[in-house]
TrEMBL record:
It comes from Actinoplanes campanulatus. The keyword Signal applies. The keyword rRNA-binding does not apply. GO terms for biological process: alkane catabolic process. Residues 28-75, 209-231 are annotated as: Disordered. Residues 44-65 have a biased composition (Low complexity). Residues 218-231 have a biased composition (Gly residues). Residues 1-19 form the signal peptide. It holds the Pfam family Lipoprotein_15. This is Putative lipoprotein with Yx(FWY)xxD motif. Keywords: Lipoprotein, Signal.
Amino acid sequence: MVVGAALAAVITLPGCAPAGFDAGAADYGNAAEPASNDVQASPGATGEAVAAADPTAEATAPADPAGGGEANTPEISDEVATTALNATKVARMGSTVQDEDGFVLYRFDKDSDDPAKSNCNGDCAKIWPPAVTNDGEPTLKGVDKSLVGTVTRADGTKQLTLKGWPLYRYIGDKKPGQWKGQNVSGTWFVITPAGTKNLTCLPAVSKPVAPPSDGTSGEAGSGEAGGDYSY
């Protein structure tokens, strides 16, 4: 009977979740999606409205008292900026958040959500390009706009956050909908529309790909596999 009960417990684990996975843990993807996948796209929210709804989301940069205008924020090219956050279900993994090109977005355990802060810079940001933005207002589908905010990175650019967690792509994902960054270094996880980790399928811990050899942040799909990096 004991063996049978143990076997039943393993069988009922969702997807390929690890042994000991707690389906009731608030930070592990059990929360219901804030909106269905077919809701009408709408602009995201930044500034005071977001700060009031989510204290972890950073408001729009205040006016520069010295210059009388907005704080000097580096301009992001249209090719680099993330302009959409779409809740999308993919095979085996389930709920994901994808950008305008269909690439899955991730969160990093070494970041913080309260206050929101990115700790992925330098080569880390070449492997995990941040979801940067100029206006902090991506179009949304299936993502609650009250959970969307921005955080200022070390280089002065603005990065989109979801429930306070900075968002990233992974250059090891070579096609839209892939999630090869799941559990890389044991610190990177697919993010759900609710901002939680998605542990529906948890592969063995793996190393990230190497950063692009040209020294740029690169696009998804660049980089060589098997790099010995700790990010």
